[in-house]
From TrEMBL:
The chain crosses the membrane at residues 6-24, 36-53, 65-83. The keyword Transmembrane applies. This is Uncharacterized protein. Keywords: Membrane, Transmembrane, Transmembrane helix.
Length: 166
């Protein structure tokens, strides 16, 4: 009974997350995406506890919340992160969105010139708090963010296996 509850509760939570993601992130600016991903995680993260509290499955709710957290991390880091940062995938999406009318090279170059790409990436880093802009210069911040998780994981694994810093 508890196993079924955990699986169903986790699936409900991640479904709520995806629905909120589709509704809310379509209407928000690109530079606010990190903030909204955190808000969405917290909003949908309450659903395991709301469901479990009424049924008396507090421990099951906590376990399903952990699974939900892992699923959100996998989605944000492995799927959404790749989709947002991969120019190739975004270009294919633009062509797909154009449909049967197609898209001209001129239209593509408007969206994908180096200045636009660099500006968007720098804005993403600024909004995430990874870098700061002071007196006309960009500087690294020594903060721990979701964007530094993959780097931290790779460095930790490297140090565990080799004993050396990467």
């Amino acid at each position: 009974m508890m196993d079924k509850f955990i699986i169903i509760n986790t699936l409900i939570s991640i479904t709520v997350y995806f629905i909120l993601h589709i509704i809310i992130l379509r209407k928000n600016k690109q530079n606010e995406i990190f903030k909204w991903l955190v808000y969405l995680y917290l909003m949908a993260g309450f659903s395991p506890f709301l469901i479990g509290w009424r049924g008396g499955f507090i421990f099951g709710s906590f376990v399903s919340w952990i699974f939900y957290t892992f699923l959100v991390l996998i989605y944000v880091l492995a799927i959404l992160g790749v989709m947002e940062s991969s120019i190739r995938i975004r270009l294919l999406k633009e062509i797909y969105d154009a449909g049967i009318r197609g898209i001209s090279l001129k239209q593509i170059l408007k969206k994908y010139n180096k200045d636009v790409i660099l500006h968007k990436r720098l804005q993403r880093f600024l909004s995430a708090g990874e870098i700061s802009f002071y007196e006309g210069k960009y500087m690294l911040e020594n903060k721990f963010t979701a964007y530094t998780l993959p780097d931290l994981a790779i460095k930790s694994i490297w140090k565990l296996y080799t004993g050396e810093k990467l």
